[in-house]
Amino acid sequence: MSSTEKVRGDGNCTSITDRFTIKVKTNNKREPVMSFVFDEVYGPGCSQERVFQNTCHLIQSTFDGYNVCVFAYGQTGTGKTYTMFGTNDAPGIAQRAIEKVYQLTKEARKLGRVQVTCYMVELYKSKLLDLLSENHNTKLKIGKDHQGVVEVKGAMIKEAPSKLDMLEILQQGMENRKTSSTCMNYGSSRSHLILSIMIRRFKGKDVFPAFGKLSLIDLAGCERASNTKATAEQLKEAQSINQSLSALGNVIAALSSGSKHVPYRSHVLTNLMSDSIGGNAKTLMFVNIGPSNFNIDDTINALNYASRVKTIKNSSKKNVDLKSKDDEIAKLKRQLQWERS
User: Using CA atoms in the order 307, 309, 311, 315, what is the torsion angle rounded to 10 degrees?
Assistant: First the structure.
């Protein structure tokens, strides 16, 4: 629980019965206890290291040429940013994933060249901003490559030859992210943050490099104005956050129900995540909840949301760097033409 919840004397409405099951005490007499089953349930005493254990294998998939997305969802103040980015003493998913990326890079460089690049953006009040650029007036546009992989055109792409380079880039982006204090969260994130790491691996005599993309996403938390006691500007931010998460909810509802139309283009956030949710990616979602009985409705909503996400099946397949492929084909055509002449 947060310090505010402890001072208020809130009770605990949740219990973990085993590593897969969480139960919530409700205010509904007809259903006093609701039970939810997931791939893994982590309690308050669980270490960041253990949380990452179920994520580690996905980093290898990025090196094998797949798109991978890891994101955190939940109510404001439930620890999403802590899960994704942690602290100096307890590094989160991002820092540990970066560590694993460069462990694999070291091994892969014995077989050929490996290029690691990245970009880092935030979605603030429906506007996409580059966290690595000093020019915040640059217009960013969401597009897709030949294989349906999302690209943010106009965003600064930085090369990171070493782990230290990547961690410095991460630090720069985190410092530029918009946060503020509310009654629910002293360091409330006011934007959705996306760190995308691109890996091109040139192995042996392979003509075309394998291309993998790792997207680490920290979604801003849904919040109620009555609980946060937000300022006028924070209310505008919260309205924008809730609208984007509602759009994401509509996409998830469409995918989980098997609808022919999925409204990815209804919002910038859903368009940005269109290759991660129901797209060409291996996707892992963390849902963060608060155990306080003050937030029972939000906790149940988040768990229901996660249950719907669990039913979605992505169609992940390996990438080939088509730009390099096109260049190589053009080169071979020129060579063939020269030999014929």
Answer: -160
Q: Looking at residue 220, what DSSP letter applies?
A: P
Query: Position of tokens 């915040």?
Result: 136
Task: Tell which residue, 317, 315, 335, 319, has the closest CA to residue 327.
Answer: 335
Reported as a single tens digit per residue, the pLDDT across 234-263 is: 788 888 988 999 999 999 999 988 899 999
Residues 6+ apart with CB under 8 A from 242: 222, 223
Buried b (16+ CB within 10 A) or exposed e, 30-56: eeeebebebeebbeeeeebeebbeebe
**pLDDT per position as a tens digit, 175-217:** 988 764 444 444 456 789 999 999 998 876 665 677 899 999 9
Backbone angles phi, psi at 170, to 5 degrees: -60, -45
How confident is the model over 55-114, as pLDDT tens digits? 899 999 998 889 999 999 998 889 999 999 999 999 999 999 999 999 999 998 988 889
Is residue 254 within 8 Å of residue 142, measured between CB atoms?
no
CB-CB contact of 275 with 150 (8 Å):
yes
Distance CA 209, CA 319 (A): 9
**Long-range CB contacts for residues 254-258, cutoff 8 Å, separation at least 24:** 255/312, 256/308, 256/309, 256/311, 256/312
Collect all residues with Cβ–Cβ distance below 8 Å to 152 and sequence separation of at least 6: 119, 121, 128, 140, 141, 142, 143, 196, 272
Please state, in angstroms and rounded to a whole number, the distance separating the CA atoms of residues 285 and 309: 8
Identify the CA nearest to 151 among candidates 116, 114, 119, 125.
Answer: 119
Contact 69/282 with Cβ under 8 angstroms? yes
Q: What is the CB-side half-sphere exposure of residue 97 using CA atoms within 13 A?
A: 31
For helices 296-310 and 232-257, the axis angle rounded to 10 degrees is 40
Residue in this structure with the two tokens 């039913």, named with its chain if needed? 311
Is residue 218 within 8 A of residue 126, CB to CB? The reply is no
What span, in angstroms and rounded, lies between the C-alpha atoms of 7 and 294? 12
